[in-house]
Description:
This protein has about 110 residues and is of the alpha+beta class.
Amino acid sequence: xxxxxxxxxxxxxxxxxxxxxxxxxxxxxxxxxxxxxxxxxxxxxxxxxxxxxxxxxxxxxxxxxxxxxxxxxxxxxxxxxxxxxxxxxxxxxxxxxxxxxxxxxxxxxxxxx
Length: 113
């Protein structure tokens, strides 16, 4: 194997690694943000995920027929509400989600001292 073949191999390897890294970055940056759980298995499951902004997500987690609303960010996890009993309709979650979004927007708009 001469120097030209080795240089071609090395360049191809670098390009493939760069493409993989770029794809990983794009998926991480612009991914759908959906977390999936195995349906009907176990006691724990993710009911719904809502993206608040580019860095924060609200996640509704179900454990033994009780739901917990959690706000995830790159630096912290905050329990918004716990012990939510499962309702017959899903309208209650939509109201809680809008309330939590409004609260986070109000926190963000307050000036820091």
